[in-house]
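Field log, afternoon session.

UNIT: design team B
ACTIVITY: writing a sequence onto a fixed backbone
BACKBONE:
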């Protein structure tokens, strides 16, 4: 514990990382989840250096006294001693079985992770206790931890990608890894024998939902031998919506006007959502991919997650 504290103080004093990040020891690291295809979640960070403008987790920064603007990218809470807290929770029996998902809100492999290693320390604990889990990320930094991942009960690694269009990517995800880097990451993970696939998420109406645009992603997914390709449509919580539209306005004014009419609420209307997702799923399945994601449920049994409510809904697992 003392060594860990000294390491954190050295990093802070040396200014090796952006100034506005704050180590805070959490009371709990293991969060019970209801209504999702996994039972537990872990998020080592609050806020994310990738700064994706559509990220639904931006809204949670208001709980810390910030806005949904770039405070989300520039003020990051780091869950110090997360591995120690997790191990204590596992020892006292808080985990009662079922899958744990890392990265359901903010990216566990964002830029800070490269220096701090919080996610890696969590994986070490999960490996020790043989806890089944899945990981969602946009970052090739996950390849750093291949030595751990090979020895863990990993049921899926979900690499999120929204588009291959560089203009849209740069406009909507200002500090995230290049889409081609993510595709190469999938290839490396699959080569290592891990179940890795793609979240096509979020699909942004009028920007990334055209048939050929989706087909381009499918072809790349085939090239890297992704194990699945699961689509999910953009959702815009009220506190995120105005920020997202402002960032797109100067680049895509016509599309923003159409999006504003489409998104009166957090979701596009079912009459729009349902046929669009049906078409995209048909494209994906025609290419031989599953749109289902391997999950862990009821202890050690492995199942699959997909939209159950209707053809217009999709499970929100990815980082948006």
């Amino acid at each position: 514990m003392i060594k860990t504290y000294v390491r954190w103080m050295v990093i802070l004093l040396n200014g090796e990382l952006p100034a506005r990040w704050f180590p805070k020891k959490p009371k709990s690291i293991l969060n019970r989840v209801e209504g999702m295809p996994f039972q537990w979640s872990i998020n080592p960070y609050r806020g994310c250096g990738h700064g994706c403008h559509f990220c639904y987790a931006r809204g949670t920064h208001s709980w810390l006294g910030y806005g949904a603007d770039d405070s989300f990218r520039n003020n990051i809470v780091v869950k110090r001693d997360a591995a120690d807290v997790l191990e204590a929770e596992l020892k006292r029996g808080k985990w009662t079985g079922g899958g744990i998902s890392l990265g359901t809100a903010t990216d566990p492999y964002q830029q800070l992770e490269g220096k701090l290693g919080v996610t890696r320390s969590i994986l070490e604990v999960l490996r020790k206790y043989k806890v089944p889990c899945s990981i969602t990320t946009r970052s090739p930094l996950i390849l750093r931890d291949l030595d751990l991942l090979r020895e863990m009960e990993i049921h899926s690694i979900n690499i999120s990608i929204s588009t291959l269009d560089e203009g849209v990517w740069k406009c909507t995800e200002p500090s995230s890894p290049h889409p081609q880097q993510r595709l190469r990451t999938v290839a490396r993970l699959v080569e290592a024998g891990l179940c890795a696939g793609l979240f096509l998420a979020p699909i942004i109406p009028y920007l990334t939902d055209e048939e050929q645009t989706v087909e381009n992603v499918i072809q790349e997914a085939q090239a890297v031998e992704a194990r699945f390709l699961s689509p999910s449509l953009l959702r815009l919580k009220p506190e995120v919506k105005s920020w997202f539209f402002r960032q797109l306005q100067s680049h895509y004014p016509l599309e923003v006007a159409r999006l504003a009419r489409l998104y009166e609420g957090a979701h596009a209307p079912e009459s729009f959502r349902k046929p669009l997702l049906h078409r995209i799923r048909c494209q994906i399945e025609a290419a031989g991919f599953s749109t289902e994601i391997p999950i862990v449920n009821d202890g050690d049994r492995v199942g699959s997650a997909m939209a159950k409510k209707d053809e217009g809904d999709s499970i929100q697992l990815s980082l948006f």
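LOG NOTE: Residues 5-16, 298-320 have pLDDT under 50 and may be disordered.
NEXT ACTIVITY: expression trials, pending approval
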